[in-house]
Amino acid sequence: MAVYTDVSDEEMEDFVALYAIGEVVSFKGIAEGVSNSNFLLQTDTGTYILTLYEERRTNPADLPFFLDLMEHLAARGLACPTPLHARDGAVIGQLCGKPAALVSFLQGLSPRRITPDHCAALGEAMARMHVAGADFPRTRPNDLSQDGWHALFKATKGRADKVAPGLADKIKSALAELKKTWPSDLPRGLIHADLFPDNVFFRGDKATGTERVSGIIDFYFACTDFLAYDVAICLNAWCFEADGAFNATKARQMLAGYRRVRDLSPAELAALPVLAQGAALRFLLTRLFDWLDTPPGAFVKRKDPLEYLRKLRFHQQVGGPGGYGIL
Amino acid sequence: MAVYTDVSDEEMEDFVALYAIGEVVSFKGIAEGVSNSNFLLQTDTGTYILTLYEERRTNPADLPFFLDLMEHLAARGLACPTPLHARDGAVIGQLCGKPAALVSFLQGLSPRRITPDHCAALGEAMARMHVAGADFPRTRPNDLSQDGWHALFKATKGRADKVAPGLADKIKSALAELKKTWPSDLPRGLIHADLFPDNVFFRGDKATGTERVSGIIDFYFACTDFLAYDVAICLNAWCFEADGAFNATKARQMLAGYRRVRDLSPAELAALPVLAQGAALRFLLTRLFDWLDTPPGAFVKRKDPLEYLRKLRFHQQVGGPGGYGIL
Asked: Which of B286, B287, B288, B277 shows the shortest CA–CA distance to B311?
């Protein structure tokens, strides 16, 4: 939720003039994307999103990966933002001295009250993304896997117990456990790695009364990792209720939706509890880091790290894929 | 620059269903307006702005005044947001338990680099607004005139010298001076009272190479006061350069633009230096209050109160309207 960089009208007009999309009619900074500055841009020819990459959040060296990936997926029919090419062919430009890109605008709303229908549609869309990413030629390591978790733990362990007594010890033992149990031989490929409801748009289909995914956005954590890890992230992000209860119906719908497009192997299914623990630990650690890093008076909503400690505990107690509604 | 209230997709859809504007296609919180939460809403039928009024910023009792005023001005051809009526006729609804209104969307860009052309166009548009407001039947006192300044001074004087040594004394003597010099018999009417560049949109006319005002927004300080006080606010807000220099060409253009539509009487012209001192003091005091009220680490840009101390000093040294480029 942020606009970190102030862009003047002249700067915006000069930037947009590099593209064949007509003249600027209006632009508004929008509260979307936690990492970068985003603007909703209207020109004579349509509506676009302009993203200005803030170095502290997105490594400029990774931008070609992210933008090529979006273009690759969009070209295969996935509803995701497509980068626009400037007249000189470039997809990464400069605005206010920072890297910037223009992408297509996607209609749809991010759901707040998640239904099993949303989860089914999400599962299908995620699997389609995995399939569409299979021939993407680039790779990018996941900096928020084992090594990243250890680095985040190192940066937070001294202050973790201020958030909850005993937290540092709990994280330490989860890290040690996951080091032993983490799989090594599952199908790998392109994953989104941050597929939270905020990053998925839906539009309802009045005729059938069902929800369909109209957009997947914010590919700035995308990387190469186990495909089932993306599924495990979504078990965390979509299938718990606000009171902390795990909704097995939602999980079952999500997994069933996924498997209609790409089946999960027995090894992938068996690994889900461990992968889901890893995903819970990843968000526990990044939230803990942000929590300790954000002054309480700041006008930014701090996300509760302990929500993910509870999710971690849930996944630690799941005996197998049956715990996620797989029959 | 803020979105203070999180609105879910269901809440937004339910709210929009009360209006005959089709279905929600997308909505984004936008970084516009310092007081309330604003959303850019797209439906099947077009683009709209939804404003959710935060009680701490806008007194709900004043909303009928503001919205009736916008409707009144828009009906007279002024480019300002027009409130939409719900199917039941209401212009003020409820969203997330707060008052909310839907208004028309205006194209155009707020200028960052102000030119004399902008000032001429602004002057004309401001005068048109004053003329269009002449038969507006409601009135609202200006709570940020003399009494308001004294209240703000009372709330800040103990800490003012932390911002600059001697500041409290300077404000105190300016208040005393303005109490004596403030005019009492100038033409009164509807004023915007916050006509900063952020609140005015322009679109360039390629054919003639000139700028025209395509929108005036944010009427949430509008009130009944001297019309020339609006002009004095604009002398402060539009005619100083970033280095503090007063640009008399811009002032002359603005006043000339204004007088092409509505002439300023000799008494109004003679009062401009005093009114401009009052305007400078008003923004000095509100900025000082916000400065002392905002923690330094907060993600909100604090505006420098001392900018307006320097402007106040400039206006105190102006002998007459000649100082503003009036020949």
From this structure: B277
